[in-house]
Specification:
Elements: E1 3-7, E2 10-15, H1 35-38, E3 42-54, E4 59-73, E5 78-92, E6 98-109, E7 112-122, E8 125-134, E9 140-150, H2 151-158, E10 167-177, H3 184-187, E11 188-202, E12 207-220, E13 223-233, E14 236-245, E15 254-263
């Protein structure tokens, strides 16, 4: 195929509570189509729209102004392209909808897929990342990311007033190795660091600020660990560790925490001073 241009295409996809979809049931071909053998010379998608409604999850999503450009490179037997959209909207369960924009560059060959210049931007966060995947049949994914998260906006999204306000910066690496007999979270590993100049903690009992917050985190084998958490609170230092076990099984999930040190100078009562003696 030399060129394929799609203008203002609209896709509506839904899943009912029983898991049935509106996708047409077509016979499975004796030989599946190989997109690399198909070799579409140039593909362009202009101002596409996608509407997704999954009542089983429940999850709903909308994508507007979807743009894509893909070119085939015969020397590499692969595709180079870009994909992006604006005004995306995702609504999950009872949380507030997430409005966001997305864009990515990609290169796809028969041996794997490379994603670069990934940008996911919204009010609660901005994420930039790069990733690569090998073996389509049994995927192995490696990537790195950087993100800036607004605690206040994320709290509005999740309808959670306990989350601290302020900006948190994080960066790290992610790996995923497909294993059909293990839950997704046990196949996923993430490690990274986070820090914030200042966070506002607003609880019913008290309101305070945590400055110079930093720490490390790790997700491996379904266990999440936050280590070397440190912050300046009430002119003192707080250091702690946190572990969440068995994330993949809600029945077995367990939270463990350790306060390594506490020194809250501003919380100490002032010592009485000795009255002056008059002569």
């Amino acid at each position: 195929v030399q060129e394929l241009i799609l203008d203002r295409r609209v896709v509506r996809f839904w899943v009912n509570q029983q898991g049935h979809t509106n996708l047409p049931q077509t016979p499975t071909p004796a030989e599946p189509v190989n997109v690399f053998d198909l070799a579409v010379g140039h593909l362009m998608l202009n101002k596409g729209e996608i509407y997704y409604n999954d009542r089983q999850t429940p999850l709903a999503a909308e994508v507007h102004d979807l743009q894509a450009q893909v070119s085939f490179d015969p020397s590499k037997t692969g595709y180079d392209g870009t994909l992006g959209y604006r005004q995306g909207r995702v609504a999950f369960d009872d949380f507030n909808p997430l409005q966001h924009d997305f864009q990515v560059r990609f290169n796809a060959t028969p041996s794997g897929l490379t994603l670069s210049q990934i940008v996911l931007a919204s009010d609660p966060f901005r994420v930039t990342a790069d990733a690569s995947m090998k073996n389509y049949a049994s995927p192995f994914v490696e990537g790195s990311y950087q993100a800036v998260v607004s605690g206040g906006e994320l709290g509005k999204l999740l309808k959670n007033k306990v989350l601290p306000g302020g900006k948190i910066t994080t960066r790290g690496n992610v790996r995923y190795r497909s294993h059909p007999r293990k839950p997704f979270l046990e196949n996923l590993s993430i490690e990274g660091q986070l820090n914030s100049d200042e966070l506002t903690i607003d609880l019913p009992e008290a309101r305070t600020r945590a400055r110079s917050f930093k720490g490390e985190y790790r997700l491996y084998g379904g266990t999440f660990e936050a280590r070397k958490l440190q912050a300046t609170v009430l002119d003192g230092q707080v250091a702690a560790d946190l572990t969440i076990l068995h994330l993949a099984d809600k029945r077995e999930a367990r939270l463990e925490g350790t306060m390594r040190s506490v020194s809250l100078a501003a919380a100490r009562p002032a010592l009485p001073t000795k009255p002056q003696e008059h002569i």
